[in-house]
């Protein structure tokens, strides 16, 4: 359904004076998801995950350049195709209230995203997400963070799109609403929709996703089935995924020392090498190529 | 409601204190100006006026008193609603101002509307077509205009349209040598066109550049990004989100531009010898007509203040964040 191959996104930036620099924020990223599936792209905040969503929709800023190919439903997504599909075939759930027009009533904004009988669709979506009826008459500044996210999620519900890209849909909602929203995404997927969820909330991802792609320093280090995240994480393939899993409060609650390399770093070898407990000298030499191991994909030369 | 009363009260206090300060400063400036009001009043006949007559004139206008006494006298009369008598027109200042203002208001409101509408439209077009040749042309035009003095444009228009092409009259508000009853509306309109164009020309650049920048900011906002992600583009996008969000600052700017309008009118009316309030200001200043000048100062301050007040009020009425939010 959706296939992202070797996607790279770089920004043209001015350094000191007039010297320009290509800043690679996403490099060689590949993910794929079949229809009826939910893929969660999991990574820490500020790692550039949102750009993946923007790249698929073709709404990156003009100083960004992309490489690689994206296929949707077997069609190669060119800039023209993206423009044609967005809002109709592909729907986007952004992450904050800033994405709502501050001067337009939210009910109208949701209706603008709908096809056909927009008012009834909007009311049904609001009811579903437990938004009171008078919310449609409110302006974005009158919403709480959780309400705003539910309004944003309802724009995807009314669009009737085949692919839904949700960028951090859960923070700020209370647990019952998160459950409801996640359940709704699951239902959408079960009825044939494809959902790409970008999140740092592994808990939410594990609850509904079929596949999980672990995002680190601008690329996916591992794509695994959701069942691989269990027990002591032995089924996981990449040291970062394992460390991430063990860092969860319900597991060992062990922090990972160090921090992600910045896009400027240009490490020659494996991006996780500086923080990896199992790193060897070979890890520093070449960037590890993605390999298929036990039905998953991993970028680690030591993975088994 | 309580907030509204507080708002009005605050604005009134501000206005009154502004007016008092303005009067004191203007009076001080005039009393230190090198123009001798008696000489300016008598004009070329000064040689024939003896020292006794001079003293008499000074006594008649109260010019023999100290500036402080003059100010107190003038001030107490203003508080009773009497703006005094103009020295050059020898008629009550209030009459002169209302007569001149009626001439100016047509000129100013036309220029105001023209510059507002045209400026907003070309500013919006430039922002929507950012970095294309249309945008560059509009930007070039605006920068050129914004850096051109009003009087120079006025002179240029006079040269081209009045002197060379002879399409419009060279100055004044009505044809010279025609009895007042015989002046037609057509005549008045003809005399109005060049000053109006001159006055609106400068405003257009200002409004267009502001609108362009504001709309560019809006177009790069997250909510426009999301609107694009929902498949909106082109005119629909502008209509739904651009116009709505850019209209508020544009309206505010438009009403706040009252002061520039007044300043521009002084220059445009002088260049075209148009008998409006702007020309009266220049006359009063040059000939040391203190009552008229101070009257115009008070009037223009109120005029500009009302413009800003209207901008404030519109914001309150239109912006839901202020209207429906509890904060003022």
From TrEMBL, chain A:
It is found in: Cell membrane. It holds the Pfam family oligo_HPY. The keyword Protease does not apply. Its main location: membrane. GO terms for biological process: peptide transport. It is a peripheral membrane protein. It is an enzyme of class 7 (translocase). Gene3D superfamilies: P-loop containing nucleotide triphosphate hydrolases. GO terms for molecular function: ABC-type nickel transporter activity; ATP binding; ATP hydrolysis activity. Keywords: ATP-binding, Cell membrane, Ion transport, Membrane, Nickel, Nickel transport, Nucleotide-binding, Translocase, Transport. Residues 4-242 form the ABC transporter domain. The complex is composed of two ATP-binding proteins (NikD and NikE), two transmembrane proteins (NikB and NikC) and a solute-binding protein (NikA). Belongs to the ABC transporter superfamily. This is Nickel import system ATP-binding protein NikD. It comes from Anaerobacillus arseniciselenatis.
Automatic annotation (TrEMBL), chain B:
Residues 101-315 form the ABC transmembrane type-1 domain. It comes from Anaerobacillus arseniciselenatis. Its main location: membrane. GO terms for cellular component: plasma membrane. It is found in: Cell membrane. Belongs to the binding-protein-dependent transport system permease family. It comes from the Bacteria. One of its GO terms (biological process) is transmembrane transport. It holds the Pfam family BPD_transp_1. The keyword DNA-binding does not apply. The keyword Cell membrane applies. The chain crosses the membrane at residues 105-128, 140-165, 192-209, 246-272, 292-318. It is a multi-pass membrane protein. This is ABC transporter permease. InterPro entries: BPD_transp_1_N, MetI-like, MetI-like_sf. Keywords: Cell membrane, Membrane, Transmembrane, Transmembrane helix, Transport.
